[in-house]
Amino acid sequence: MKKRPAAEKAVDDYVRDGMTIGLGTGNAANMAIDRIAELVDEGYDLKFVATSLQTASYAQMHGLEISDIDQVDHIDVTIDGADEVDPDLNMIKGLGGALLREKIVASLTEKEIIVVDGFKVTDVLGKKVPLPVEVCRFAHSKTASALSSLGCEPLLRTNGDGKAFVSDGGNYIYDCRFKSISDPVALESAIDVIPGVVECGLFIGMAYAVEAYCEESDSVKELIFKDRTAGLREYP
């Protein structure tokens, strides 16, 4: 499974001089950052926003200056990974712990590019990975109980030391194991109305995608997706 060729293709195909770029979180995003740093060294003038403190640190180590998201007026392209993707390009994200900021950045992005290995593509979401749900720390066990009423087994995420994982936003994350998610739109709505839920890791209808398709080769398959190109800026 070759994510690096796909990440590099995503950068070369979609990043243009003068853009504001959203930087995702995880291995695929880091591979994209490696290539983006080369473009900056070649003279590209780019602005960047990061979806996590981890990503910001990695980008800064490569000489990229991170802007405050409230100080940019648009995000042209975000390059990120995903934990699971269905045929409609609905996704589960958040196993890296950055789902809240990833979703905020994605919602403000004109073109979201997703880089994944082929094994992360599934016919129905929830078969391979749990669904991360970020929750307020106050009364979090009560929130977990409400989540379980939707048919999942919520497990509080912990660090290696056994203490609860805390997100960049200061929240807890419950990893919710469903047998499958046949209607991600309805499930997202049901989760979002639970008091105490900050955000869930279902990303519905947000993505364009580039996929590392064949684990036996270095070939890269570009998925064809819903047209979200209306109103995009033109770059040389």
UniProtKB/TrEMBL annotation:
<dbReference type="InterPro" id="IPR004788">
    <property type="entry name" value="Ribose5P_isomerase_type_A"/>
</dbReference>
<dbReference type="GO" id="GO:0004751">
    <property type="term" value="F:ribose-5-phosphate isomerase activity"/>
</dbReference>
<dbReference type="GO" id="GO:0005829">
    <property type="term" value="C:cytosol"/>
</dbReference>
<dbReference type="GO" id="GO:0006014">
    <property type="term" value="P:D-ribose metabolic process"/>
</dbReference>
<dbReference type="Pfam" id="PF06026">
    <property type="entry name" value="Rib_5-P_isom_A"/>
</dbReference>
<protein>
    <recommendedName>
        <fullName>Ribose 5-phosphate isomerase A</fullName>
        <ecNumber>5.3.1.6</ecNumber>
    </recommendedName>
</protein>
<dbReference type="GO" id="GO:0009052">
    <property type="term" value="P:pentose-phosphate shunt, non-oxidative branch"/>
</dbReference>
<keyword id="KW-0413">Isomerase</keyword>
<dbReference type="InterPro" id="IPR037171">
    <property type="entry name" value="NagB/RpiA_transferase-like"/>
</dbReference>
